[in-house]
Design brief:
Number of strands: 0
Structural class: mainly alpha
Helix content: over 70%
Low-confidence stretches: none
Radius of gyration: 19 Å
Distance between the termini: 46 Å
Shape: elongated
Number of domains: 1
Mean pLDDT: 82
Largest sheet: none
Strand content: under 5%
Number of helices: 7
Length: about 200
Amino acid sequence: MNRLLRKIKKTYIQELPVIRLYGLLYLIGVFIGAGTAVLLRNDFSTQAQLLFSPENSCGFFAAFLQQFIFFLLIFLLGLTVVGIPLVPLYPLYKGFSIGLLIALAAILSGWRGLILGTLAFFVQNFFYTVLGYFLCYSSARLSVVLFELLKGRGKHGAAYREFLRHSYCLLAVSPFLLCGALWEWKMVPVILSLF
């Protein structure tokens, strides 16, 4: 167990710049989303009230499928060289959506909306963002290996091993998507009913 913990700590320290970049992209997305909500608050007021109604929350299968499609898209981006510049769009998108939703909740209901909006939207979206980090990182690594192979400097065996890791990563995060979908299905309507 100690050996595993040492390996996790060593990997964390080595990958700290990538984690910081991912977190920075997420925070930039949050600020852009919140700024958009503030700028367009008058245009969004009617739609936001409909968005925050408990009847508008999605079911378990719809919540899971929506996130799984995003993760499948990230997985497929790793199979191409195009994945290198496109994968960082995921944390920007997740940050933007959470910033927009929480800012709209705060604009509509003040402090109460800020707290309830954070509980309703931040929990599962932050969970999805953390899971997305692992898949985005795996996707970027595979894209880089394929790019090196395309340039004639890579090895086929390395690309195959990286593809297997990438596939395992998608399989490993998929069950955790069920937890987020369960939160969206059961808890979000209850929280939204308090608005």
